[in-house]
Predict the 3D structure of the following.
Amino acid sequence: MSSTLNNILPVVYFALVWTYGKAFFADKLWAKPAKTPLLLCTIVLHSFSLAVRVIEFRHPPVTSVFEILSVLACSISIIYLAIEYHSRQKETGYFILNIAFFFQLASSLFIRSTSEVPEILRSPLFGVHVTSALLGYAASTIAGAFSLMYLMLYHEMKATQFGVIYKKLPTLETLERMTFTTVILAFVLLSIAILFGFIWLNRVIPEPDYFDPKLVGTMVMWAMYGFLVVAKARYGWKGRKVMILSIAGFLISLFSMTFINIFFSKFHKFY
């Protein structure tokens, strides 16, 4: 069943993105009321798929980069649904859910299945660490997407080319507020992940390497978001420089999750 669900998920995400795209670019009347319920159904199906995988292989779905990408796609969808419900802004979903689609597509294409995993993956501390870390990465991804939308809208307004981006996206002030909210969320979640990660690390590894590239990358991203929070709250930073730093944080997280995790990290590799 896990394999079947894994093959279905990219198709479902494609249908979800297509529906949001029809609502955003073509103003299709059927798409506007259908997109949020479809998002909810996608999240339920994806969560069920992850639960089936846990039961079938008897370990959390975080033993490889491609398992992590699937969890990340689901996390992005969940956080976006919460933001959409809270803000009542439903016009940003096309851009954010495209990222979830590509993460899930890569996961479904390259994922490997095994029931043999190290015992350390069953630690409750590890569970808190990895859950908060992945939610933090998801918030980072959404913050980066909001920042990119801000810059797209900013340049369209500056060029006085008032197309679909100008007509459909929220205002610059709203996008900035949504970006900063997700940056704070990413900072808090990464703080929890780092705290529990250090506790767990010292319990399971006698002589941990605190200069592991994955750990260093996470700390750099955490410090960058911490700087953004302080700079905006204390010194009133706003506008393009906040957006550029937010996008930089997302790129660091993406590089850390993929390239560094595959080729350089030591104790963050479990497969």
